[in-house]
Amino acid sequence: MESFAFFTSSSEECKQIAVALDGAGCCPRCILRFLGENKTTSYRLSSQDIHRTLVPDTNSHQECPCPSCLGILQKYAESDFLNKILHKVQEESYEFCDYQCSLILPVCIGIRQRALFVHLKNKFGAIYCIQESSIPSVKDVWKWSCGMRVGGLLSTQFQSKSDFDILLTFIYPDSDKECSFLLSSFPDVFKKRKQRKYGFETFTRANVAKALNDMTDSQFEDCTTCPLSMPVAECSCEIACTHEPVFVAGRYQKYSRVLSQTPWIVDGKRVMEGSVEELICDPILSTFRPAGEHISPISPEKVMLLSQFSDYSQCFMVFVLPFPCMEILHK
């Protein structure tokens, strides 16, 4: 364990904590998290290697999802799932220079982490007299573990900020049920939101985090068990790819009074051929291949004076190519 940087330097204490977390059903990467490991390279080791290092005297046979990360750092950090991300990107024919990855996690993960943290404080005392924020988050650990590996599959670089985003939305069917005890503890926050029209979500990451921050450990223990029971249901994951919109602005001269700004169609029939929008957009659309686009004038057309220019802006939504060089746009 010398290569790790844990909350405690005592090998015996680390082993006791690792065994306790393993006994609670935690996955190897969550054991590393709760031991305080902040080195990103440690999480790139396989689950089997981490388990052999931390708890060598036990067998690694986990059939249930981890009670801390709900399996997000288990099956969703393994090669089979990463290949699904690759296939999704290839299916939609995206081209990009680099990529970022965004994760939307079930709200109840905050509650599960707090429950495990309180359990460790009760069991190991002074070692966990720290801020809960000292424990690496599930999001960060997933990115540390999988970011570069997905980049290798995509033959590109993983960045913390990029125009191309792979969004992973994790859905846990029992999330609201596990948050339900907050309704009675904070009625002013959650019951009012539940009674609102238009179907607002009762529990959000922000209001649950605030509620947990306002609760002492003893209040939290009065409301739920520490740690929480093993999850029965599994998370599912939806993969979506998006690219930041591209905005193209410029000027044009209009030499015809009969050329409309946009295609003129009445009762399904075209009134006149051609339009400013089509003349400007069509050549660029063939390059960007967007899912949607919009052109809008910035100032009124000045068709009376040919020396005057009209301004326009154009927005391409959900396009699949990276921003082309200016030479392509000039063509």
TrEMBL record:
UniProtKB keywords: Isomerase, tRNA processing
Domain Pus10 N-terminal eukaryotes: 66-240
Catalytic class of the enzyme: isomerase
One example of a Gene Ontology biological process annotation: tRNA pseudouridine synthesis
Domain of life according to the entry: Eukaryota
This protein's record includes keyword ATP-binding: no
GO molecular function, one term: tRNA pseudouridine(55) synthase activity
InterPro entries assigned: Pus10-like (IPR039894), Pus10-like_C (IPR048741), Pus10_N_euk (IPR048742)
Keyword field contains tRNA processing: yes
Name of the protein in its database record: tRNA pseudouridine(55) synthase
Biological source species: Plakobranchus ocellatus
